[in-house]
Amino acid sequence: MSNASSPDFPIAIIGAGFAGIGTAIQLKKAGIDSFTIFERASEVGGTWRDNTYPGAACDVPSHAYSLSFEQSPTWSRRFAPSGEIQEYLLGITDKWGLRKHTRFNTEIVDARFDEPAGSWTLTTGEDETFTARVVVSCVGGLVDPSMPDIKGMQSFTGELFHTARWNHEYDLAGRRVAVIGTGASAVQVVPEVAREAAQLDVYQRTPAWVVPKHDKVYSERYKRLLARFPLLLRASRFMIYWLSELFGPIIFLDNERLSKLGEKGSRAHLKAQVKDPVLREKLTPNFQFGCKRMLISDEYWASFERPNVELVTDPIEEIKSGGIETKDGTFREVDAIIVATGFALGLASAPFPITGKGGQKLDDVWKDGAVAYKGMNVSGFPNWFILMGPNTGPGHTSVLVYTEAQIAHTLAAIKKLRNEGLRYVDVRQDVQDRYNEGLQKRMKHMVWSTGCNSWYLSDDGSNHSLYPGFAAEYALRARAFKVRDYELVA
Ligand code: NAP
């Protein structure tokens, strides 16, 4: 058995995406070097390492979708492409010397709490074990591609891949291509494929509300200005953040007047992009604005105006060796199928077996839905901190606002444990229950519960993904480590 870094107070960070890297940097800044990052892949980056499909970009402006303690003046445009975000993550990883802390190609497959020692034993896929006093779980919520269960899919003899596992060896130029799905990944990839392919069929099950993107390239002069006057960069971030909070209720509240405002904007955008009223009708959602994720694109709807792009709304019956057949009996031959069907929701269950105090399993505790205090701590699982855990996703702003608050909270708890020589901190069950009852009461007033089907909801219709409120409010609640909410054990 070896220790997660230095023997005095080993800390394990699982996952080297935005959350893991951000946590590691803040630990370094606090003078804490005794951490190890366990990363199952061979490189850092998480989402931005994996999602390299053409058109992949963040739909939150980069001045806000970056760490507040590692701001960059060099973003090439308002919504930076995926590759540039990955470059940013590689840059800060190297700047802070995080590679020497990272065990790549090391997947944690089991975790067990040892109560007398106040430590966790982590086991890797190679059957190695590590001991850590604190575990910061940064495994992400939307990581593993969700493949659709469509009859005959295995019999397809052309090229088939998921957007998050793009095959860059395969040249789409001049090919007949199908895209299945019309969510956040699809709206980015469809315009790119439409430009390349000879024929593109987009299989839509549910249309989405799309709004204009207002993207723009940043001039060299502007970037120099931002580098010279960091206050300008802060001001830009501040503006983006508060504007998203201001307009947030349109996207997250179940309020007919506000939803109508959003719908009106989106309908005007559709009208400006698509001339044919029949096509417009097919592209118009019949659920309340915001119920499923609002999408942003200036090119997606316009793609359907191209002569080589067809919107297919008949449900898929079967995939055959040479193409796709829909329920109405039409068969469309294709050379390639791109699956844009999203991800298996990682936050709904434990990422691997996690055994807490008294031998209880996290998956058993979460059998009626994933819950955690402030999305981070689960009673009975001491010294275990989840970043981007249950009910911490935003529908309207940068997820990093939430992540940074969670990092601050985790750091405060680590300091408490270290400085006071505590064995463990464990959130009180009654505190956790009250917190979650409050969340679920508020959830009833959120637009996500108005009848549409989305990855936000569990099978029983409950929402254990998103935070029902403003980011500022969550951040204020989550940042502080309130000692009275925890059992402190020496
Ligand atoms: P998604 O939003 O879950 O969309 C999946 C799409 O596939 C939906 O249109 C869905 O239809 C369709 N689909 C699923 N199974 C199907 C089947 N068996 N047959 C036909 N259609 C099927 O997935 P995503 O687009 O990858 O986005 C997931 C999340 O990742 C987003 O909500 C967002 O949080 C994140 N994301 C973010 C960005 C960004 O720019 N920041 C970009 C991409 C993704 P239904 O709607 O009918 O279920």
What distinguishing features does this structure have?
about 20% strand; binds NADP nicotinamide-adenine-dinucleotide phosphate; FAD/NAD(P)-binding domain; alpha/beta; about 500 residues; single chain; 5-stranded parallel beta sheet; 5-stranded mixed beta sheet
End-to-end Cα distance, whole Å, is 24 Å
- Molecules bound to protein: NADP nicotinamide-adenine-dinucleotide phosphate
Q: Major beta sheet, specifics?
A: 5 strands, mixed
CATH class of the largest domain: Alpha Beta
Q: What name does the CATH topology of the largest domain carry?
A: FAD/NAD(P)-binding domain
Q: What is the tally of beta strands?
A: 24
Q: pLDDT under 50 segments (min length 5)?
A: none
Q: Can you tell me the overall shape?
A: globular
CATH superfamily of the largest domain: FAD/NAD(P)-binding domain
Measured on Cα atoms, how large is the radius of gyration? 23 Å
Q: What would you say this structure looks like, in words?
A:
The protein starts with a strand and ends with a strand. Strand 5 and strand 6 form a beta hairpin. Strands 1-7-6-5-21 form a five-stranded mixed sheet, with no helix packed on it. A five-stranded parallel sheet has the order 4-3-2-8-22, covered by helices on one side. It is globular and about 70 Å long. The chain folds into two domains: 227 residues, FAD/NAD(P)-binding domain, CATH 3.50.50.60; 190 residues, FAD/NAD(P)-binding domain (3-Layer(bba) Sandwich). It is α/β, with parallel strands linked by helices and 490 residues long. Helix content is 31%, strand content 19%. NADP nicotinamide-adenine-dinucleotide phosphate binds next to helix 4.
